[in-house]
Amino acid sequence: MSALGEYRAAGEIRQGAGAALAALKARAAEWDLELHEADGLLTLLLWGGELTCAVSPAGARMAIRAPERRLVQVIRDALAELLAAEGVAVAWDAVEEGALAPGLALMRVVSVRARSPGFLRVRLRGEEAARFATGGLHFRLLLPPRGRAPVWPRIAATGRTVWPEGRDALHRPVYTLAGQAGDWLEFDIFRHAGSPTCHWAASTGPGDTVGVIGPGGGWLPEADRLMLLGDATALPAIARMLALTDRPARAVLQVAAEDMGSLAADPRVTRTDDLTAALEAAQIAPGTHVWFAGHEDAARRARAHLAGRGMGKRDFTAAAYWS
C-alpha cells in the first residue's frame, strides 16, 4: 500500500471546471499547501491526503486518496464548501448516503472523577478507542442538547457531511487524549464556570452514549527541538506532546501548582505566573518550533512577538484555546 493509503473517492464536475480549478489554486496559495500542476492535472497535498483535478473539455475528474476513510471525507467536505462558493458541485461516483460521518465513534461513559482541583478525568469505552491514539493530538466530543435524543452527523446524497442544526445542534468541544489502552480512552476537562462540557460531566453517568470524532489537530511539530508554552487549557496537549517526543523539549506552564500532576517532577517543565512575559524572555535556539496556546488575546500577542523576532510561520504555532 502506498504512503497515501487506499481509501478513495472520485467524481465529476460537469459544469464550472475552470472556476473549480481557479478556486483550488487560490486556496492552495492561501493555506500554503503543496501543489503540482502538469499536463492538465492539478495535484494538491493536504492533511496527509491527496486531491487531484484532471481537466478535460467535458469538465473535470476529481479524485481523493488518503490513509483513512475519515480523511477522505474531511477533504471531500472541504472541497464541497470551497466549490459551493463558486456555484460548482461534484457528482460523486459512490456515496454511503445515511452512514455516520467517517471518524465518528459512539462510545460509552465509564467514569468521571476529579484528577486535581482544576481538572476532571473522563474515561470512555468503545471498539474504536485505539485509533484515537494516533494520527492527531486532539478529538472532538459531540454532545447533544440536554433532554433531547442525539442526532448524529451523517452523509447526505451529495456526499457531504450533514450536521444537525437548530434545537438538535451538537456542542463540539476539542479535547486531548490523556491515556488509551484496549477499548478505552481518557481525557481531561478543565473545570471552569459556564462550560457546557463541565455541565455534561456533572450530569452524565456510566453507560451514557457520547460521540467522539477525529482524531485531528495535527501531530508533533517537525523540528529539532520544541518549546511549549500554555495556560491550564493547554496543559493536556503539552503533557501529551512531552510524553510523545524523543527530541529536546522544554515547557512553560501558567497552571496552578496543584494541577501540574506528574509534570511537576518533569525537569523539562517550569511554571510561570505570566505566560506572555515568559515567552518574551525566552531564548530560542535555531531549529526550535515554538508552540503556544491560551487565551485568544495572549495567542495574538504571541503570534506578533514571534513574527517580530523573525520566525517564519512554519516555525511556530500560536493557538487560541479560549476567549
Describe the protein:
- It is a single chain.
- With 323 residues, the protein is α+β, with helices and mostly antiparallel strands.
- The chain has three domains: 7-92, Alpha-D-phosphohexomutase, C-terminal domain (TATA-Binding Protein, 2-Layer Sandwich); 104-216, Beta Barrel (Elongation Factor Tu (Ef-tu), domain 3), CATH 2.40.30; 225-322, Rossmann fold, CATH 3.40.50.80.
- 21% of the residues lie in helices and 37% in strands.
- The protein is built from six helices and 19 strands.
- It has helices at 17-31, 69-84, 196-203, 235-244, 275-281, 296-308; strands at residues 7-13, 34-38, 41-46, 49-56, 59-66, 91-92, 104-116, 119-125, 138-142, 154-155, 161-162, 174-181, 184-190, 209-216, 225-231, 249-254, 269-271, 288-295, 316-322.
- The strands form four sheets. The protein has a six-stranded antiparallel β-sheet with strand order 2-3-4-5-1-6, covered by helices on one side. Strands 7-8-13-12-9-14 form a six-stranded antiparallel beta barrel. It has a five-stranded parallel β-sheet with strand order 17-16-15-18-19, sandwiched between helices.
- The radius of gyration is 21 Å and the shape is globular.
- The mean pLDDT is 94.
Keywords:
Elongation Factor Tu (Ef-tu), domain 3, 3 domains, Rossmann fold, TATA-Binding Protein, six-stranded antiparallel beta barrel, alpha+beta, single chain, six-stranded antiparallel β-sheet, 323 residues
Distance between termini?
Answer: 43 Å
Unreliable spans: none
CATH superfamily of the largest domain: Translation factors
Helix content: 10-25%
- The figure for the number of domains is 3
Structural class: alpha+beta
Given the C-alpha coordinates, what overall shape results?
A: globular
Enumerate how many helices there are, as a single number.
Answer: 6
Q: What fold name stands as the CATH topology of the largest domain?
A: Elongation Factor Tu (Ef-tu), domain 3
Give a count of the beta strands, DSSP E runs of length 2 or more.
19
Order of helices and strands: EHEEEEHEEEEEEEEHEEHEEHEHE
Share in β-strands: 35-45%
Radius of gyration: 21 Å
Corresponding CATH architecture of the largest domain: Beta Barrel
CATH class of the largest domain: Mainly Beta
Record the strand order, biggest sheet: 2-3-4-5-1-6
Tell me, rounded to a whole number, the average pLDDT. Answer: 94
Largest sheet: 6 strands, antiparallel
